[in-house]
Amino acid sequence: MGLTIAYIIIAIYSIALLLIFFYSLAQLNLLINYLGYKKRNQVAPKYNLLDPKEIPYVTIQLPIYNEEYVVERLLENIAKIEYPKSKLEIQVLDDSTDDSVLDTAERIKELQKTGLDIKHIRRENRQGYKAGALKEGLEIAKGQFIAIFDADFLPESDWLKKTVIYFKDEEIGVVQTRWGHINRDYSTLTRIQAFALDAHFTLEQVGRNSKGHFINFNGTAGIWRKECILDAGNWEGDTLTEDLDLSYRAQLKNWKFKYLEDVETPAELPVVISAARSQQFRWNKGGAENFRKTVWSVITAKNIPFKTKFHGVMHLLNSSMFLCVFIVALLSIPMLYIKNIYGHLGIVFEVTSFFIISTIILFVCYWFTYKSIQGSGFDNFVDYIKLFFTFFSVALGFSLHNTVAVLEGHMGKRSEFVRTPKFNINNLTDSWKGNKYLAKKLSPNMILEFALMLYFLFGMYSAVPLNDFGLFPFHLMLFLGFGFVFFKSLTAKA
User: Fold this and answer.
1) What is the domain range of residue 297?
2) Is residue 78 part of a domain?
3) pLDDT tens digit at each of 494 positions of the chain
4) Which of 23, 123, 164, 436 is the most buried (most CB within 10 A)?
5) Is 321 part of any domain?
6) Is 34 within a domain?
7) Alpha helix locations (H) across 39-97?
8) Model's pTM, two decimal places?
9) Would you say residue 77 lies in a domain?
10) Helices 188-199 & 353-374, crossing angle to 10 degrees?
11) What's the CA gap between 274 and 490, in Å, rounded?
């Protein structure tokens, strides 16, 4: 290996490590915000729902697409929402292309007989996907506030009473609630998804919102002020995460977002890795698309302070961290050999400590979010350590898949909005096998994931002849992570 190539590898490796380090510092700042906010008493103007004059008109939108397994559960649950029927409208925005349309229509007719104002809205095509459906429904929505629930969400009956009251403050454009997980303990896959989402819905959402930094409506389990949607330019389908896109456009127009950590809205996590893959791909590609679309508007905005801009840029770069992690992983083995061949470059390898520091920072941050939901105590801390390193390994195993998504997003390559199949899985005895919406083809990335598993096995072996075990734990986690993703994909028809 030539010295010039070695310098290039060191430079790329170091830049990726530094970006991960800056990301971890941003997370640490959010943790400080989060802990400070938890100690404050919150006072906010609220509607008095005991006064009929103060009860606002609400439209609930339910965007669905081929949801045979969960649509009955969804409609039954939404029908239990406690709110005056004269001030409530429900729109079932049904883009389905299968037989579920007929069952949905029948159930809606039954609910209409109870006096519920519920409509079955169909479109001729899926133009704009979910964003297009929401936009079309908005045109005829009666409500001044628009609550949105995806098909797998199950809000409590008093959900509207706990959320719509905050719109008394006319500057608030969105009220977002925290996601819960009805099947958190179904498998290792669901546990690590819940772990990552809990961190987002505690540390990140509260940490940003508490200081007036930009947060995002999460696509579901929240309410928009109709005026805010229209003022921000309405729903647009040019990214795969239309929720993040509209959120930033609204906040750039000075609308405030209210995040309610204490209001939990239960939902179902993907139980099969193919479903998790499609969801991860959409979220990460959409994040990169929104960085491309929005970052310059954030940087040049005159109405927001520097710290809010910094957190906004880091937020939009969230998914791009997978690209940095993948680069660090891929180059870590060449770095091991460079260190052995070019002893005089030893000082450069101190930069590796940034990755260790970043990992420790994230370990601390995630512990606070874990214990806020699961509780503290020694046993929980031991469980947390196991879960953290399982999560870390599997996240590394997803890094190739998510890097492809991020690169496509940054390069502007368009792709179809692929929905996440739902399963109606509530407990360990429920099975996902036979679900007709599952992807039948294996992911082409699997071959590369298997190759990467072997590559990091070689990295672990390399530690022996080089007598350098500094990167051995990292390569072990990469080996286990890519192995987990590969074998789970193989057995689950990814």
Assistant:
1) 1-44+169-494
2) no
3) 678 898 899 899 989 999 999 999 999 999 999 998 866 656 789 999 999 999 999 999 999 998 888 999 999 999 999 999 999 999 999 999 888 899 999 999 999 999 999 999 999 888 889 999 999 999 999 999 999 999 999 999 999 999 999 999 999 999 999 999 999 998 999 999 999 999 999 999 999 999 999 999 999 999 999 999 999 999 999 999 999 999 999 999 999 999 999 999 999 999 888 888 889 999 999 999 999 999 999 999 999 999 999 999 999 999 999 999 999 999 999 998 888 887 776 676 776 777 889 999 999 999 999 998 888 888 999 999 999 999 999 999 999 999 999 999 999 888 776 666 666 655 544 444 555 555 556 677 889 999 999 999 999 999 999 888 888 999 999 999 999 999 988 876 53
4) 164
5) yes
6) yes
7) 71-78
8) 0.92
9) no
10) 90
11) 10
Query: What is the rounded distance in angstroms from the CA atom of residue 148 to the CA atom of residue 222?
Result: 6
Q: Which positions are catalytic?
A: 95, 243
Task: Find the radius of gyration of the CA atoms of the chain.
Answer: 24
Task: Kindly give the residue spans of alpha helices, DSSP state H, lying in 375-444.
Answer: 378-397, 399-411
* Residues 409 and 316: beta-carbon distance below 8 Å: no
Please tell me the total count of domains within the chain: 1
**Are 31 and 116 within 8 A, CB to CB?**
no
